[in-house]
Amino acid sequence: MKVILKETISSLGIIGSEVTVADGYARNYLLPQGKAVSATAQQRKLLEQEKAKFELQIAKEKEFAQEMATRLEAVTVAIASKVHEGDKLYGSVTIRDIIDALKKQGVEVEKRMVLLNEPIKTIGTFKVPIRVYQGVKPEITVDIVPEEA
Q1: What is the pLDDT of residue 20?
Q2: 89 and 55, same structural domain?
Q3: CA dist 69 → 14, 32, 85, 114, 137 (Å)
Q4: Who's near 119: CB < 8 A, 6+ residues apart?
């Protein structure tokens, strides 16, 4: 089913774009929540009339994302973890650990925003990308340090 997005949805597209989604997803989620409208000729005409409004909204979102990215680039978090045999950790540092460390510094991010491919299993300094907006992925610095006994 073709729908026109009324707000930016990271997995689908930006506000005002026409996308094809599964019928059930459109009927059960997007349309009832007001996140999209059916892509009919009438809705396309309304879209053209509201295009300037959508472009302004996109510009605001991008500007906010750039500001947030600038702030995130400067963030360094230190996570203490138990170590055995040299540099290996007993467990591993996961996305949840990074989110908790960021929260302690007053930075709120969602789990889906942290792009950690696999858990960190050694001590050291790592760069972890954070998806803020489409195409905006600043990297935070994560220092894994041995836990003091």
Answers
A1: 94
A2: no
A3: 18, 32, 37, 13, 7
A4: 92, 93, 94
pLDDT tens-digit map of 3-52: 998 888 878 888 888 899 999 999 999 999 999 999 888 888 888 777 77
Rg (CA), the chain: 20
Indicate if 89 and 123 belong to the same structural domain: yes
Q: Which residue has the tokens 């992925």?
A: 137
Please provide residue 130's backbone torsions phi and psi, each rounded to the nearest 5 degrees.
-120, 125
Q: In total, how many domains does the chain have? A: 2
- SS3 for 120? strand
Using alpha carbons, list the distances in angstroms from residue 129 to 35, 68, 95, 115, 120.
27, 13, 11, 5, 14
Both tokens of 64, joined, read 């906010």
Percent helix, strand, coil in the chain, to 5, is 40, 30, 30
| Residue range 71-88: mean pLDDT, rounded | 83
The answer, as to whether pTM is greater than 0.70, is no
